[in-house]
Sequence to fold (388 residues):
Amino acid sequence: MDQAVALFGKVGGLLLYPVAFLFVLTIVVFVHEFGHYWVGRRCGVGVKAFSIGFGKELWGWTDRHGTRWKLSAIPLGGYVKFMGDMNAASVPDEAALAAMSPAERAQSFQSKPLLARAAVVAAGPVANFILAILVFAAITWIGGRQVLAPRIEAVQAGSAAESAGFQPQDLIVSIDGRAIASFSDMQRLVSTSAGDDLTILVDRGGSRLTLNATPAIREVEMPGFGKQRIGVLGIQGSRDPADLRFVRYGIVDSLGFGVTETWAVVDRTFAYLGKLVTGRESPKQLSGPIGIMRVSGDVAAVGGLAPLVGLIAVLSVSIGLINLFPIPLLDGGHLLFYAAEAALGRPLSERAQEIGFRIGLAFVVMLMLFATWNDLVNLGASFASRGT
Fold:
């Protein structure tokens, strides 16, 4: 009996990972695609299908506007298919457009003015950013925040902080001109600045002085993501109860905090990509669907629903930002084509767009394969460490 209960517990624990993954990804994908759908409908575009997932339809219905709403077999994204689209990537179907009646053609995506098409395409990422802002704001408004003052309790011997001249009781005021309101603000900025020279303004006994420090690079095990490289100064936060306060936020301040947190995710992403291009960060930190599943399950197992909702906000920002990259096949690639159309005064040729989409598809597939390989390596390393 005890063995059966233990086995049931293990199976339930394993099921938590795909359930948490589908919960997080479905919400993020639905909001992204609904952004396209909603603005498309406002612009008079006919919508043939709204799908969560790709491949074979598992369940669906057709609404009174003729849109097929469906859940599909491969739960790794989704799409909105407008009238005049050949496929889920919104490649124009020239043959279908030619066969349409004037009334049908007037509802096609390709018949709409340039600004309307750009608005429809941009609406997906914008919806993701709005979702993130609202989620971060709701978490803050409902639960408030524990804020620890950015005061130093102790400095680690031989650390970057000791070399820079930090002392216990120093209060960090700003880093590279950015105001620091809490110890977590400082940690977040330092962790993404490994190897960077930082100019840090501190308050020492009422006097302000400037210190220069370069966070050391440290590899840490991040649940669901394997080993990650972060920056550390080697300081310990204050333990004085007077430096810890609980803050309640009104709706307006919560929305402001939501915007700040959303921008912080964007800023960290660009900081990582910049260092990746210059060779100062490892591409091994890129994660794919397996990595997202792992972190979703880990977060759900440790913290429950509330942290999982926070993960929705982080993932929503990431998906919105990635889709804005100027890569054909992604939303940013479509916007790039529209920018070229605005500059040339005419759309790019069908041949040029086809080549662009093929290049974009190849890039996306290679990126997915590379990220999945990283996920598998991290997963294997995780199992190996548990075995030891």
Confidence is low (pLDDT under 50) at residues 1-12. Residues 250 and 358 are 49 Å apart (CA to CA). The chain has eleven helices and twelve strands. Residues 2-42 form the longest helix (41 residues).
